[in-house]
């Protein structure tokens, strides 16, 4: 009986050893498959990461371009609004200059107030880039509008200025209306 028990124990031990060997071989095969599966999954995730990085970079690029475009549009809108506003103020400048001319040589506190108001308005316009068109260098069709002939002026020179011209940030805001020599 002891021998039978020993034999059974040995048989059991052999069976367990065989099962362990089979299990170890199965686990090794599963491990091999798992490593291959994991490597495939890693490769797939790396490809997915590259794609997402490219999408993110493209989105950042598009956002930067949008910000730049919005800034350009805002600047253009600002310039347009400033141009319209400055054109309207030029009428006030013209009226103040006419009032000074109409007063003639008579000095009065009212005339002094008009002169100071004109000076203040012109200073404010200059702060924002509105500058009077140059009249000293002769007629320039880009800056002056000839509306007639000045008989006492030389050819190509400005005889009489009917209305001053102005530029805004080196762009023509209003041409000077002048009489030109023939």
Automatic annotation (TrEMBL):
<comment type="subunit">
    <text>Homodimer.</text>
</comment>
<comment type="function">
    <text>Participates actively in the response to hyperosmotic and heat shock by preventing the aggregation of stress-denatured proteins, in association with DnaK and GrpE. It is the nucleotide exchange factor for DnaK and may function as a thermosensor. Unfolded proteins bind initially to DnaJ; upon interaction with the DnaJ-bound protein, DnaK hydrolyzes its bound ATP, resulting in the formation of a stable complex. GrpE releases ADP from DnaK; ATP binding to DnaK triggers the release of the substrate protein, thus completing the reaction cycle.</text>
</comment>
<dbReference type="GO" id="GO:0042803">
    <property type="term" value="F:protein homodimerization activity"/>
</dbReference>
<dbReference type="InterPro" id="IPR013805">
    <property type="entry name" value="GrpE_CC"/>
</dbReference>
<dbReference type="GO" id="GO:0005829">
    <property type="term" value="C:cytosol"/>
</dbReference>
<dbReference type="GO" id="GO:0051087">
    <property type="term" value="F:protein-folding chaperone binding"/>
</dbReference>
<dbReference type="Pfam" id="PF01025">
    <property type="entry name" value="GrpE"/>
</dbReference>
<dbReference type="GO" id="GO:0051082">
    <property type="term" value="F:unfolded protein binding"/>
</dbReference>
<keyword id="KW-0143">Chaperone</keyword>
<keyword id="KW-0963">Cytoplasm</keyword>
<protein>
    <recommendedName>
        <fullName>Protein GrpE</fullName>
    </recommendedName>
</protein>
<keyword id="KW-0346">Stress response</keyword>
<feature type="region of interest" description="Disordered">
    <location>
        <begin position="1"/>
        <end position="33"/>
    </location>
</feature>
<dbReference type="GO" id="GO:0000774">
    <property type="term" value="F:adenyl-nucleotide exchange factor activity"/>
</dbReference>
<dbReference type="GO" id="GO:0006457">
    <property type="term" value="P:protein folding"/>
</dbReference>
<dbReference type="InterPro" id="IPR000740">
    <property type="entry name" value="GrpE"/>
</dbReference>
<feature type="compositionally biased region" description="Polar residues">
    <location>
        <begin position="1"/>
        <end position="10"/>
    </location>
</feature>
<comment type="similarity">
    <text>Belongs to the GrpE family.</text>
</comment>
<dbReference type="InterPro" id="IPR009012">
    <property type="entry name" value="GrpE_head"/>
</dbReference>
<feature type="compositionally biased region" description="Polar residues">
    <location>
        <begin position="22"/>
        <end position="33"/>
    </location>
</feature>
